[in-house]
Input
Amino acid sequence: MIKAPGKQALIAAALVTAAIVLLALFADRPLALMLKDFDQQNPGGLDLFRRLTELGNSKWYLWPTGLAALAGLGFTALMKHNPARQAQIRRIALACAFVFACVAVSGLLVDLLKIIFGRARPILLETEGVFAWAPFTASSRWASFPSGHSNTAFALAFALTMLWPRWRLLFGASAVLVASTRFIITAHFISDVVGGAIVAALTTCLIAAIFASRGWLPRPPP
Output
C-alpha cells in the first residue's frame, strides 16, 4: 500500500513548485536571451553542448536495459540446474528492468505533461513571450515544459543511485551536466529543466517503492 504524503513531502512539493515559479518569473527570459546572444556572436561556441545533449535521449538507455532485462529473465528460466547463477542473473535482469521502468514511465509522464501544458519553447520567446501556453497543441515548438532530456538524465541518475548509492555523486553530476545543456543551447528554459528533474525524482521513488515491496530490488531505496 502506498502511504499518503507526509508533512515533509508536502513542504518539499511546495518549495519545488515555488522554485519553478520563481525561475520562470526571474530567470527564464534573461538567461535565454543571454545564451541566444552568445550563440549568435560566437558561432560554434555551443557545439560541445549540442553534442552532449544527445546523452539525454532515452533511446540510449531504454533499448539496452529493456533487451537485457528480457534476456536475463529468459536465461533465469533456463538456469534451474544452477540456483546460484540463476539468482545472480535474476538480480541483474531486475536491475535492468528497474532502470528501464524508471526512464520509460518517467518519460511517458513527461510527454503527457508536455501536451497538457503546451508551453512555448525559447525559439518562440521573442514572438510569444516567456509565458506562452497552448495546451493540447501537437507541435514540438509548444512542448517546452517539462524537459524530456533532463527528465531522462535524472531518471537514469536516480535509478542508478538506488542500485549503487556509492556512486551517487558521479550519477548526479552527470545528470546535471546533461540537463544543463538543454537551457544552454536554448532548447528549453531553465524552469523546464528543473521540472523534468522533479518528475524524474517523484517517478523513480514511486517505482523504487513498488520494486522494493516485491523484493525486486537488491536493497531498499534510500
